[in-house]
Amino acid sequence: MAFVTSLRSACCGVMQLLVLSGTLASCSSKSAQGKTERPPPLIRVVTLEQRNVDIEVHAPVDLRPLFQADVGSKTLGYLDAVLVDRGDKVKRGQVVALIRPSDLPDQLAASKGVLAQMQASLNLARTNHDRISNLAPTGVVSQQELQQAEATLASATAAEAASKAQIGALAVRLGEMRIESPLDGYVVQRKLDPGALVGPPGGGAIVTVARTDVLRVFITVNERNSAMVSIGKEASVTLDALPGRVFRGSVVRLAPFFDPTTRTLDAEVQLGNTDGALRPGMYGRGSITLERHSGATVLPAAAMQISNDQRYVFILDGNRVRRRNIETGYDAGEWLEVKSGVHAGERVVIAGADGLSEGSVVRVAPETALDAGTTLETPPASSSAPSVPSALSGQHR
């Protein structure tokens, strides 16, 4: 009986082992069937090109007229008429306003009366002088009387000249009642209306006239770049109001000293405006070309990786990538100048570099063209290396 019990226990153990081994074999088979090979990582590449790289300094600017003048009256009076309004085109010498004088006509009439008296006194002095001069040789009149007659004649002559000068000055002031434009341009602002008192001491400008055929901007340059800026350097301006257009000029004047608050130097650039597209007050960005590096290799900023203070990129070699250390130069924000490490014609990874290493097998997405006039757009890709800041425009990496 004990033998039979032992035999039954052994058979149960064998059956359990068979069931367990079958279960393990089934799981192993299912695991083998579910396991698939991971595909190589997908990357995007771009072919490096050579390009003329302009080293520039940038600054916000606003357009200002080359000349601007407040037109007023030098003579006290009342504004009788304003012949122009804001936006009107005027020529130099064109009458823009008329002034009604306060007391100039009365002053002119009084001066003419004084002139008549001076002329009568001059005629009398000349007659006396001639008579005494004729009698002096005969001894009838003394030498003292002759000298006195000469002095009287000279005084009367001077008085007449002074009276004539005063009349001339009053006539000029009356002529200035016609207010003329001092330059060619446009009326920027009309400040007074007819009936206003103008002229010293309480009067002000009647209209403001500005010349707009040539406009100017002031581009601020920091101390580090100031030594590279000189008169004649090429400059360009882009405006928010006129997207897509670039207005070119050159540096015509440099400020003699730095602004003590901002430590910047103003460089004046003049822009022609023959078509009238530019208007004073427009806002935009100006740039001055400091240097030009011809035939430089340029690299999208997204392609550069930084690790342990080393800059490197991944170059596509067949279906694998190779790591290259690089030396960069000018940084334009979205692209970089490469001094060494890569060459034009090589294809560099610009997206999907996360996790790549030397010799990694990769899949390549359709290539992105690196065009000088377009902005590189790459899909977001995480990277263990620090990102390259794009705000360092105008600096060297």
Describe the structure concisely for a colleague:
With 397 residues, the chain is an alpha+beta fold. It is 26% helix and 39% strand. It has four domains: 44-52 and 295-396, conserved putative lor/sdh protein from methanococcus maripaludis s2 fold; 57-64 and 211-292, Efflux pump adaptor protein, beta barrel domain (Elongation Factor Tu (Ef-tu), domain 3), CATH 2.40.30; 73-98 and 178-208, RNA polymerase II/Efflux pump adaptor protein, barrel-sandwich hybrid domain (OB fold (Dihydrolipoamide Acetyltransferase, E2P)), CATH 2.40.50; 104-175, Helix hairpin bin (Helix Hairpins, Orthogonal Bundle).
Topology diagram in text:
Blueprint (H helix, E strand, L loop, with lengths): L1 H33 L7 E6 L1 E14 L1 E8 L5 E6 L6 E2 L4 E7 L2 H32 L7 H33 L2 E3 L4 E6 L6 E2 L8 E16 H4 L7 E6 L2 E13 L9 E9 L10 E18 L4 E3 L2 E8 L2 E6 L1 E5 L3 E6 L6 E5 L11 E2 L30 E2 L1
Parallel strand pairs: 1-21
Antiparallel strand pairs: 1-20, 2-14, 3-10, 4-6, 4-9, 5-8, 6-7, 8-10, 10-13, 11-12, 11-14, 12-13, 14-19, 15-16, 16-17, 18-19, 18-22
